[in-house]
Amino acid sequence: MTVQLDQLANGFRIVSEPMPGLQSASIGIWVSAGGRHERVEQNGIAHFLEHMAFKGTTTRSALQIAEAIEDVGGYINAYTSREVTAYYARVLEADVPLALDVIADILLNPLFDATEIEVERGVILQEIGQANDTPDDVIFDWLQEESYRDQPLGRTILGPSERVSAFSRDDLAGFVGEHYGPGQMILAAAGAVDHDALVRAAQTLFGHLAPVAEPVTAAARFTGGEYRKSKALEQAHFALALESPGYRDDAIYTAQIYASALGGGMSSRLFQEVRERRGLCYTIFAQAGAYADTGTTTIYAGTSAAQIADLAGITIDEMKRTAENMTDAEIARARAQMKAGMLMGLESPSTRAERLARLVQIWDRVPSLEETVERIDAVSSADLRRFAETMAATAPAAMALYGPIDAAPSLARLQERRAA
Question: pTM to 2 decimals?
């Protein structure tokens, strides 16, 4: 499979990878405009804008947008993260030009009808309410806020209700003008695609756009901190974040292998010790997340009010034991899980298109799978043990607790346990 990458004169990039044997394709545009690109008064507007994309253009109504894709059996959607907003579709090979035309239409010709803005405002306010009522969703927002306090990266993607309630048509159009320039957009496609045809279509649809100055994004600072909210829930929810490498740091591979060994599957340390041996929880996991210039290794579990103190303390103890006696077999298993998960995921054209877009955004190129596998294999046992020692003892930490948590230890107490 051959990845091809081209760039128009105005900075708009096109990357694609054909997947022989497929009769469908995934195609989308990834825009470097997410939550961390918002000013404080704009918090939530990137997500609001994503919702408005499907509410009508100067040439199509909201219904016509949906019908254009669904009439050919396709699927269209979008999402907003802290660093990107994506608009994408999955269609059969013959309908790739149609999908690209629809996506271009919603990006370039949004109507921002006043009535539709009010309708979608209500939808988003309901979404915020639903998230706030979902403990294992909202706890991660609180953990993010404590990890990056008073920074764009620490704010919720949905935004606070009071901000969402006040956004106007001018606010939406202004954010598009600031962040939706051709240099901030990447067209990515995988599956049954013709790269040269994509480039020609991109030139027609996006070649006229004038470049915009890329806004300066402040460097992230992991602050650490603690958030606690008592509530009469069935479970006490525990989330811990530790400062880790960003995705441009080679140590990201070390962080990901470590998180897999610590809490990435049924054979992991935390799952075996906390759930299987002690029965303290149903769900527990660790994962390594990354941004352009920072990252977090996150541990989450839900347990009873009576067991929250034990769970939190044993989690720290298991991290320390991992630093002391992580075995080569555990490392090999975690490395295999990471590689297999990546390769299995790339059997999907949607996953492959997203990978292409993200790698071009990060590196302005697409490293080969062989290069990525080599980087994973290059992580040594010594690298992992040093990283585990840092996670167990000295990495800055943040914690969020929610539910019946009166018996839960403070972050300061857990820090003392780490240092002991």
Answer: 0.94
Neighbouring-strand partners of residue 288? 297
As a whole number of angstroms, the distance between CA 299 and CA 371 comes to: 29
Q: How many alpha carbons fall within 13 Å on the CB side of residue 149?
A: 10
Beta strands in 134-279 (DSSP E): 185-191, 225-230, 236-244
Phi and psi dihedrals of 61, rounded to 5? -80, 170
Mean pLDDT of 252-259: 97
Structure tokens belonging to residue 327: 């075995």
- Residues 86/79, Cβ–Cβ less than 8 Å: yes
128-156: b or e for each residue (b if 16 or more CB lie within 10 Å)? beeeeeebeebbbbbbbbbbbbebbbbbb
Kindly state the tokens that stand for 339: 């590689």
Chain position carrying tokens 């962080």? 255
Residues 6+ apart with CB under 8 A from 4: 15, 16, 17, 195
- Spell out the residues 6+ positions from residue 123 whose beta carbon is closer than 8 angstroms to its own: 51
Q: What are phi and psi of 183, to 5 degrees?
A: -70, -15
Rg over CA atoms, the chain: 23
The chain-wide mean pLDDT, for the chain, equals: 96
Name the one residue in this structure whose structure tokens are 């527990």.
284
Does pLDDT of 215 surpass 90?
Answer: no
162 in catalytic set: no
Angle at 225 between CA 219 and CA 227, to 5 degrees: 125
Phi, psi angle pair for 6, to nearest 5°: -130, 160
| Active-site choice (17, 38, 50, 243) | 50
